[in-house]
Amino acid sequence: MKRSLRFYLQLAFTVVVCAFLVVPVVLSIMAGVTENFFVGIKSGLTFRWVVEVWTLYNKTIFLSIGIALATLAVTLLIGIPAAYVLARRQNRYTRWIEELIVLPVAVPGLATALALILLYGQFSGFRISWTFILVGHVLFTLPFMVRSVLAVMSAIDLKTLEDAAASLGASFTQRFFHVILPNCRQGILAGALMVVTLSMGEFNITWMLHTPLTMTLPVGLADSYASMRLEIGSAYTIVFFIMIIPLLVAMQWMSEPAKVKPRFLS
Amino acid sequence: MKPTHRESLRHIVLLLPALTIFSAFWLLPMARLVSVGASGEMGVSAYWAVITDPRYFSSLVSTIVLSATVTFATIIISGITGMFLQRNHFFGRRFLLATLTFPLAFPGVVVGFMVILLVGRQGVVGSVTEWLFGEKLVLAYSMAGLFLGYLYFSIPRVILTIMAAAEKLDGALEEAARSLGASPWQVVRDVMIPGLKPALISSGAICFATSMGAFGTAFTLATKINVLPITIYSEFTNYANFSLAAALSIVLGLITWLALALARSMAGSTVAAAA
After folding, report:
1. Is-contact B212 B174, C-beta < 8 A?
2. What pLDDT is recorded for position B270?
3. Of the N and C termini of chain A, which has fewer Cβ atoms inside 10 Å?
């Protein structure tokens, strides 16, 4: 098939846009494994920057994974029951609640963080512990879990399923764990991936809430960009990529067959 | 059918954990933030400082101008790219699509670092211009760097939203317009843009709100750039001016919330920002 000139012009434009997004990623990967980025690849390839990042910052990696999993646990525990009620009871009040819980995403993280510090900063035990960051992450990710589960719950006929189970004598606990949850596992899984990915990358709230002893991965990244040589910042960024790629691949893989849109996109 | 008493009770119990955590850790702190904002030397008028004090006003204006420019540029770039990728199937399309999804998960700090690698002191653009013209082009630590950074995190989100909306557009309408003699530009203006309007409005609002509140990118590039999040941050940490920082962040929060709420009432779909 012969393509028109317009096709090639648009293709060229698209390639430039993609290059804008990809070139820096490739550069950071190269810089992270080059002896001296200023000299270039010819200075030799090395893993010493990655090793150095590991010795300097490995705590931030474990803390980020820990906080992401804790955030996931909390959002599952409080988010799924909330989504269930929002799906079953669609009235003025539940719409209000839906609106309210999205606010921590609509308002800049800086404002949420300042508010938390002004009210709870004086409780020093809480202020210096990792749970202070956990609170910020739960607020920020909860709407994504609730919306993801709610989307699936609204698509299936929840009430009929429940009534059928109830007419067969199933108690509410039985219905919840054996009928409702299995029917929403797509939404729960999508929400869970979203929550973990967002928590691992959260910076705006975390930067204000962290202490030198509770540095997460993105906070450590900011620290290394500001105070370390370019190669170390790059090697650290590689570590972040390695952690985030499996999550992204899983999200894409999930969204393709079922056509569940990732919830980044509203 | 009205829910039974027992059911209502159950629903309240199920909602309670989420509502308690949200009230204790967001509503109450926010109420405190609002009152701290009014507790400084200036009292409630601190909220007007963002307009009356030239320093904060210029910071507000530059943030709004920057965010609006980024939004406009993102919509045009993503519109062209998104429509192209949706309508044409060719070798390498999947690869190009994959490159668009990858930056979605980058925090603002990483985006800032990407800009440094691109147009910073040791950036690739600088080396190319040095080789070509004998002079290094360094943009990263200025408004231009911020602009590029905000484009970087906005483009992927908007492209994917536009592609999802374009998928639902009826291609036959464009065919009809063309067969009736419409020029390519007329097809874009009179058929495609109206069809994509809800997606354009909602993704534009998200883009604007995210840019207004973006902190990580500006923080990495330079703490001296005069945008509102950086101003709030330095008032809070460098000058310990808590009441003013609180007032400014409430104003900023109202602006982003308003942008999203307006877009939702115009586009009629749910709009949520993602940082």
Report:
1. no
2. 47
3. N
Total Cβ atoms within 10 A of residue B257: 18
- How much is the ipTM here? 0.86
Residue from B176, B115, B97 nearest A233 by CA? B115
Nearest CA in chain A to B127: A38
The beta-carbon neighbor of A101 closest among B22, B90, B108 is B22
Q: Global pTM?
A: 0.89
Q: Which of B150, B110, B113, B114 is nearest to A243 (CA)?
A: B110
Mutation test of the interface with chain B: which of A29, A99, A107, choosing the one with the most B Cβ atoms within 10 A? A107
Of A113 and B168, the structure prediction assigns the larger pLDDT to A113
Contact B193, B80 (CB under 8 A): no
For chain A, the three-class secondary structure string (H helix, E strand, C coil) is CCCCHHHHHHHHHHHHHHHHHHHHHHHHHHHHCECCCCCCHHHCECCHHHHHHHHHHHHHHHHHHHHHHHHHHHHHHHHHHHHHHHHHCCCHHHHHHHHHHHHHHHCCHHHHHHHHHHHHCCCHHHHCCHHHHHHHHHHHHHHHHHHHHHHHHHHCCHHHHHHHHHHCCCCHHHHHHHHHHHHCHHHHHHHHHHHHHHHHHCCHHHHHHCCCCCCCHHHHHHHHHHHCCHHHHHHHHHHHHHHHHHHHHHHHHHHHHHCCCCHHHC
* Contact yes or no for B248/B63 (Cβ under 8 A): no
Taken in order B266, A82, B25, A212, the sign of the CA dihedral is negative
* B114 vs A48: CA distance, rounded Å: 22
**Sole residue written with tokens 């929550």:** A195
Q: CA-based angle A96:A98:A100, to the nearest 5?
A: 70
Cβ-defined contact of B113 to A233 (cutoff 8 Å): yes
* CA distances for A112 relative to A200, A260, B27, B36, B108, angstroms: 18, 30, 10, 14, 17
CB contact under 8 A, A109 and B245: no
